[in-house]
Amino acid sequence: MESYATERVPRSQRWPAFAILLILTGNVTAMFWFTLGGQIGFLVGWPLMLIPIGYLVIVSTVLGSLIMRIASREGLSLVLLTRGLGFGAKGSAVASFIYGINYIFYFIFEGSIVSHALSQYFGVGQNSITASAIFALVGAAALFFAWRGMHSMNILQRFGMPIFLMLFAVGIFMLSQGHALVGPGQWESLTPSDPTVMWQAFSLVNGQIVFQALLATDYGRFSRPQIGYKGTAGIMFGEMMMIAVVLVLGSFLAFTIYPSITEGDPVLYSTDPGFVFALIMGLLGVIFAIITQIRINVMNLYSGSLAFSNTWDAFARKPIRRNWWMVGLLALGIVLYPVNVLQYTDTFLAVTGIMTNTWIFILLADYFICRKGLKLAPAEKIEYDERVIRDWNPCGMIAMAIAVALGACGLAGLYPIYYASFIAMISGPIIHVLLTALTRGRFYSPKTSRRSDQVLEGETNAN
């Protein structure tokens, strides 16, 4: 099992760029994108929805190319890079814990879609014990593949993409037979008089601009060290353009299904892929949802386990292997499944935009401004060994705390929530650079090792 959760990826385990992109196609086919595309379409309509989508593609490509290049050069996961880039060994554990929470949400999100598809087709109650059992079984299938590491995931994504494309094409054909297709010319905002809808749409995608870069970096650290920014940008752009297509298709599905929903919340149901594909394709739609969910939840389990294993290792003496963290994520997902997280997508994306975006912008500011620009620390061979680096770097921690607090004010209603993630991710790196410059990079300096302390103590006693 080649996780390298707490060490550098050796050169012998590096992969070509195309293999990394192939694995990332599993993320492209996540049902989440259909939901997000429908929500953006209902907010701003066509063609205005292309503005936030374009923002997502461009910014994610830029951020992802920068972060992935650093990870590839160093051979380190993002949570290990965080140790040296402004947070310290234990400080990085706080950031990685926040990172791991994202994967809990997405794991439950994708698994819930399967249960909703089965509920639609078989009449199984979404909050029933049966639905939770189904969620557990499908999650266990994802666990089987994620347990075996990168090679297993590569095989799954290689054969899963053609199946996804074939079943989706069948679904579109069946949709055209039973419903009047609604083209872009008819995609109009459901609230055209609301002047804030564009900001709401930007808030939704802002919760993804960094997360996609993080996900890509978890696998990009396996790319060959000689890959340049053009190579990492190519990987990110290829992934994000495919995601953009799925977002538009999600809006197409939502607007087509919306008029036929007469019960419940039409917006919620028409943006729920589990309900939509089961309605369109019947049993085949259920199979489609199951296959897609397994592919993406393999990635959610793998990346989530990396984050939580780093958090644990920073505070505990006895490590827990990464694969057992995946078991824990599955168990937690089963417990939280009845909450139906799909209805809280907008709130969650605002929260993750505040926390995750702020974290990564601080890392980039540390690397490119504090290290490369101000020369306050080396920009290569970033130290990550907890026996050497400091436990806490107050510059990153204070900047993160202040920025998140500013964002939380938006969540509390002190200003519009759709500004919150932008305010947090801009203020965090500015504060970090100022603090690091004022302290002249003092907290980059390595702490004295335990062995040196013991030698010094022995010499003192001898004298």
Automatic annotation (TrEMBL):
Gene3D superfamilies: Hydantoin permease. The chain crosses the membrane at residues 15-34, 40-66, 87-109, 129-147, 159-177, 197-219, 240-261, 273-291, 324-342, 348-370, 391-413, 419-438. InterPro entries: CodB (IPR030191). Keywords: Membrane, Transmembrane, Transmembrane helix. It comes from the Bacteria. The keyword Secreted does not apply. This is Allantoin permease. It comes from Brevibacterium sediminis. The lineage of its organism: Bacteria, Bacillati, Actinomycetota, Actinomycetes, Micrococcales.
